[in-house]
Design brief:
The strands form four sheets. A ten-stranded mixed sheet has the order 2-1-3-4-5-15-14-13-11-12, covered by helices on one side. Strands 17-16-19-20-21-32-31-30-28-29 form a ten-stranded mixed sheet. It is built from 25 helices and 32 strands. The chain is of the alpha+beta class and 976 residues long.
Length: 976
């Protein structure tokens, strides 16, 4: 496109160089910039140009240009706005998308810039920004429409303007009334409240009362009576009258027109394809309500202006003032534009656009203007962050048919490509214990087992009252959160499950399941010791890559191979992963180009191999969509410039980050619709609404309102108190408005930490919040950091050099500290102690301690770990689901013993030297307690006889019990 300085308006030069809005008003057919203090103020007699510049995470600038036409603007001014918009696009290098906005029918994208709304004022350029003396307040009536953004229109102050379908705001001098039509939806009412707040702050300095009037509530309500009194008393509302503004424009199949010499000529075609568009011409695609102008890269500025004029003429001649006109440049077509074509190539030539920007930048630079915004920005380089606390507790199950089997700590990081796995991770959140439950689907797993994995995981989430977030992750598409939780992650070939074995037997496929004595090759990758992976690949030379390290082993032979493009930083990762794969062998280093013959023999001979590194995709700018799913059809509406307030509790939303998507489910969504979360996520990936070739194996997170994890809330300016509120969207916003803009809920304080075996159960200090394990002085090789590694390493380390990397699970007190009215009764006390001590001998002891609604009622084999198991659902608890009550209790007892075996003898010895006091002087209910006693060891001051009488056992027997059992007994006798 040829550009000269005479073609560019001086007022537009230098625009679009930084993120944000810029607005010009057309005065005497020229654009005049308006001050930021006046942004959002529009006059219905004027035309405006609005430029929205968005800086993406990659550093590039994206531009959207809107020209807004007031209902009373002249045709000449409207034409000038359209032409100047084309010039502004030329200043920006010919890459912006241009939108025509008509007052009262603006696009959602345009309205999202001025949330909650725009209320055009009477007048035009002559009276636009001149100071006007304060006038007496005039009562006004507005109608509001829209679930996501609100279109506000002033209507005559009369009863005839009201109806049952819409929402109205009556603005009086001392009070604002919101009238909710009986047929309006909750979301529209909630959005209209934002307009009420806007009017209150803008026109009343925040000092007026607000009333909500429900359609059908008559004079019995005082505020309703006051409202109807302003209209002369209540009377039935008339039927809604439809004006020209209410007429809908039917969409039709796209019609293609070619613009030549300012005239649009139709082109007959059976199907619309990109091949019909010539880069040297401009075209119109008429779809009825939507009208698009496509401008070829090689068209001149005059051609583009004439195409714009021809489009305006087409809309006027067909009497379609509400038609939305969008102008796009070749190479920068919008998703909606591409969707009108039956076929559209996935790639576009962006080189031409950068050349065009460079030419315009050079032209303006010669005029002494800053052209930073026109030059290609360097992408922002940043290490991806998990945004999740990595000091929590992890459990992993392998799915076997319709059941799941809990893995030992040594196997938690070992996954098989032919199997499916379920993981549960609990970790300290901002103000409560957070949970993440997910499925990992191996590439070679069978379909039946994939469905079973999701069903089992869903039941686990349901058993915890939907408190946990849920994830579905496919092999090869793991998220940064997943890797950071496991820290060490190994993927072996083959599978251990019956379903996989039956499948390969039926298909007569060789079993490639990993065996320690076979030849195996692992690619080592990751960003550091807290995020490292070993992926088993085919043991052939073509599997190598110069950008990676590898581990190759065969029985007692181990080689570590480093490519020429690797750095020394990754040597530690190889050593750590070797500790997990072959902990008893030392690897023989092999440098690319200097390999031994034995190395190539194990790989079957030397062949060519690539050197391109598998680069993790850069994080895309997120997109938020509102979802409507019925009868298998998914309709989505994009929410532009979204915020937390756009997440309506009655709806389901999708946050698309390209590399992963989040399905957010509001608390007010009915149970049947809630079960559609997975189909909605799958259908979204299938439809690929943004046409960004998103994979159907993209990870999906399912997030319930009120339990949003930090790696979701980071995309918003988040206030957790809002998501914890009760009621529907309208009730919540009304409560916030009446509380002065603050959610009426007090944010719960984080519970006090509970010490366990000398370790703090609360959030560690920053310097200690890694599940790392220090290097043993007895061994030169660096040690891994995952829980699985530490369990494995314990078998090789000396018992004198124990260093647990993960704190044992915190034990929560199941009973409150406060005593019951009957606690003083000797009969109830003795029976309580008898009951508790008797449960220690029964296998189902722990189940009997849970409230009835939370107990495990399953009668299935404990080894299968049926999904009927229930976990404590109290947010203040951090106990995780146990596969088997008896086995879980035994494991916990072992952990207790390991953590405290060194202190119990010393504790008993210390107790022997303490003075002896009667029970009445040391218990928590004592009226005259002994001073200066250690309140954590009240039982130690009792005599042996009284100890046995009160606690039902000898002192030596008591101290062999796990800590949680000791605490139960001490509670029962009021020694806590």
């Amino acid at each position: 496109m040829g550009v000269s300085m005479r073609d560019l308006d001086p007022a537009l030069k230098g625009a679009g160089q930084k993120d944000g809005l810029e607005i010009w008003r057309i005065e005497n057919f020229n654009p005049v910039p308006i001050p930021q203090s006046s942004y959002g103020k529009f006059f219905n007699g004027d035309s405006y140009i609005v430029l929205k510049t968005t800086a993406s995470k990659s550093g590039a600038l994206r531009h959207d240009i809107h020209y807004w036409l007031g209902k009373d603007t002249s045709q000449d001014e409207a034409g000038a706005a359209a032409i100047k918009t084309v010039e502004l696009d030329a200043v920006l290098g010919g890459r912006a998308v241009q939108y025509r906005e008509v007052q009262g029918h603006e696009t959602q994208k345009f309205l999202s810039y001025f949330k909650p709304c725009i209320i055009p004022q009477e007048g035009g350029a002559a009276s636009g920004f001149k100071h006007v003396e304060a006038e007496e307040h005039t009562t006004r009536l507005f109608v509001c429409k829209g679930k996501h953004v609100v279109n506000v229109k002033e209507v005559p102050f009369a009863r005839s303007s009201l109806n049952h379908d819409d929402i109205f705001i009556l603005d009086t001098e001392s009070k604002l009334f919101q009238f909710n039509g009986s047929n309006s939806c909750i979301q529209e009412r909630a959005k209209a409240l934002e307009v009420v707040q806007f009017i209150k702050d803008t026109y009343h300095d925040g000092k007026c009362e607000v009333a909500s009037i429900e359609d059908g509530r008559l004079m019995a309500d005082s505020e309703s009576g006051e409202f109807w009194g302003l209209f002369g008393g209540f009377a039935p509302l008339p039927r809604k009258t439809f004006s020209d503004d209410d007429k809908t424009i039917d969409s039709h199949d796209p019609k293609l027109l070619c613009v030549e010499k300012g005239k649009a000529e139709p082109i007959e075609t059976d199907s619309l394809t990109k091949e019909l568009l010539d880069t040297n011409k401009c075209y119109i695609i008429d779809c009825g309500l939507e009208v698009y102008v496509w401008m070829g890269r090689n068209t001149s500025l005059d051609d583009r202006k004439s195409a714009s004029g021809a489009t305006d003429e087409l809309v006027r001649s067909t009497d379609r003032p509400k038609s939305q006109i969008t102008r796009v440049i070749e190479g920068f077509e919008t998703v909606m534009f591409k969707s009108k074509f039956e076929s559209w190539p996935q790639t576009s030539n962006l080189t031409m656009s950068e050349d065009g920007r460079g030419k315009v930048a050079a032209l303006l630079k010669r005029q002494g203007l800053d052209v930073k915004g026109l030059l290609k920005a360097d992408p922002v380089k940043e290490e991806p962050q998990p945004y999740i606390d990595c000091t929590g507790h992890l459990q992993v199950w392998r799915v076997n048919g319709q059941e799941k089997k809990l893995l030992a700590g040594t196997d938690q990081s070992k996954f098989y490509s032919g199997d499916c796995f379920i993981f549960q991770y609990s970790y300290p959140g901002e103000d409560r214990e957070e949970y993440l439950i997910g499925t990992w689907i191996g590439q070679n797993s069978v379909e039946e087992e994939r469905a079973s994995a999701h069903t089992l995981a869903s039941k686990m989430v349901e058993s915890m009252k939907f408190l946990p977030s849920m994830a579905r992750i496919y092999e090869g598409n793991e998220t940064i959160q997943f890797h950071s939780i496991l820290q060490s992650f190994i993927v072996f070939k083959g599978g251990l499950g019956d379903a996989y074995k039956n499948y390969i037997a039926e298909k007569e496929i060789p079993d490639e399941t990993y065996r320690e004595d076979s030849v195996a090759l692992f690619r080592i990758q990751g960003s550091g010791p807290d995020n490292m992976q070993a992926i088993q690949v085919d043991p052939v030379a073509s599997s190598l890559n110069s950008s990676y390290f590898y581990i190759l082993h065969s029985e007692s032979i181990v080689f570590t191979w480093s490519g020429n493009l690797t750095t020394s930083d990754y040597h530690e990762l190889v050593e750590r992963m070797l500790d997990l794969i072959k902990p008893d062998l030392q690897g023989k280093p092999q440098r690319e180009g200097a390999e031994s013959e034995q190395f190539w023999e194990l790989l079957g001979g030397k062949t060519e191999y690539p050197s391109q590194k598998i680069v993790r995709e850069a994080e895309n700018d997120p997109h938020l969509f509102s979802c409507n799913f019925s009868q298998g059809n998914l309709k989505v509406t994009e929410i532009h410039n979204f915020s937390q307030d756009d997440l309506m509790t009655e709806d389901i939303f999708i946050l698309d980050c390209h590399s992963e998507i989040f399905v957010w489910v509001g608390q007010q969504v009915d149970p049947k619709s809630r079960l559609q979360a997975l189909p909605i996520g799958e259908k979204f990936l299938e439809k690929d609404f943004l046409l960004e070739t998103i994979s159907r194996y993209t990870p999906i997170y399912f997030v319930m309102e009120g339990s949003e994890p930090s790696f979701f809330t980071r995309f918003f300016k988040w206030d957790s108190a809002k998501s914890s509120m009760l009621g529907n969207s309208f009730q919540r916003k009304l409560a916030i408005m009446k509380n002065g803009g603050t959610p009426p809920l007090v944010k719960p304080k984080r519970r006090a930490s509970v010490s366990y075996g000398g370790r703090s159960g609360g959030l560690p200090e920053k310097s200690q919040r890694s599940r790392s394990m220090s290097v043993s002085p007895d061994r030169a090789r660096a040690r891994g950091r995952s829980p699985a590694f530490n369990a494995l390493a314990a078998t090789f380390e000396s018992s004198n050099v124990r260093n647990l990397s993960t704190p044992p699970p915190m034990i929560r007190k199941l009973y409150p500290k406060s005593k019951t009215p009957d606690s003083a009764s000797p009969t109830s006390k003795s029976s309580s102690i008898s009951h508790i001590t008797s449960t220690f001998e029964r296998p189902s002891a722990r189940g009997s301690l849970f409230p009835r609604s939370l107990k495990d009622t399953s009668k299935s084999n404990p080894e299968t770990n049926s999904d009927n198991e229930k976990s404590p659902i109290n947010r203040e608890e951090s106990l995780t689901i146990q596969e088997d009550v008896k086995e879980g209790e035994a494991q916990e007892d072992v952990k207790e013993g390991e953590a405290q075996e060194d202190v119990k003898e010393g504790e008993a010895e210390d107790n022997e030297g303490l003075p002896v006091y009667p029970y009445e002087s040391v218990n928590t209910a004592a009226t005259d307690p002994m001073p200066d006693i250690d309140v954590t060891k009240r039982e130690a001051y009792l005599s042996n006889d009284e100890f046995k009488e009160k606690l039902g056992m000898a002192r030596s027997e008591f101290y062999t019990l796990p800590k949680w059992k000791q605490n139960k007994l001490k509670m029962a006798v009021q020694l806590f």
